[in-house]
Amino acid sequence: MDAAHYIATLECVAPRASAPETYDYAILELAASDNLLAQIYSAMSHERLQWWSLFEGTEWQDAWENGPVLVDLRNAAGFRQQLLSQLESAPLGVVFESELTVETLRQNLAARLCGSQAGAGHLLRFYEPRMIAPLLSALVEQKRQALLVPGCRWYWHDGHGWRGAVAIEDGHCGSWESEPMLVTQQELREAEVYWVAGEACGYADHYAKALTSVESPKHWVFNSLQSARGAGFQKTGHLERWLRLAIQHGADFPRLEPFRSTLSRDDLALTERLTAMESTPEKSHANA
């Protein structure tokens, strides 16, 4: 995998950003928090806040309480400020600016939910803050703009920091019309690699002091995370534990004993293999 390509593309398409000072709307995932809907209702009692389920009129309509909602925050400054801190601690959704009418937004954003594959029953959660940058990076420009233009300016917290994206047609959103869009399986697979690139950027910053001797820390972390995925570790928690092992014992630790033997033990679950490797005394291996 070309670490430089994936990281550079992601940072160009969805660069780091400051927390947004102003925004008009949010797409929030009710399934991400048991209290989110109650918070919205509470805010409505003292602010002019409106919201609509994006599942309305779709095959997922009956499950609206576990789906995305479009929230109009233009007249809800209090809830808007409260939401920012929540977005920094939990993957609840994205916020954005838009010049489109609410009805147009509802129709076009709901249409994007069905754009993941050709068959019925496939849901594209394009508002998932941990995956929106990888998804945008994996799409060709035309598809990328099809997702971005309804919002003009998007902001989200990916678990490491704020990112943002701006539509090319910024300032002319009112003339945009929905067009069919299909995200292919290949693009979804590419998005997974771009997700690794985003995680590598975040972890490289977090573990910067431990990576001072490493050339191109982001690339080094990307390759370490890809090594973990190649060994069968896919969960975020597992990847970070693998990375800590690489920092402690060197990037080639999976090829060294006793790590190699531990990794090959089919009688141990993945978490148990990590735990066993973490108990191995530190040896004098290079970190690069």
TrEMBL record:
<feature type="domain" description="DUF4123">
    <location>
        <begin position="25"/>
        <end position="145"/>
    </location>
</feature>
<protein>
    <recommendedName>
        <fullName>DUF4123 domain-containing protein</fullName>
    </recommendedName>
</protein>
<dbReference type="Pfam" id="PF13503">
    <property type="entry name" value="DUF4123"/>
</dbReference>
<dbReference type="InterPro" id="IPR025391">
    <property type="entry name" value="DUF4123"/>
</dbReference>
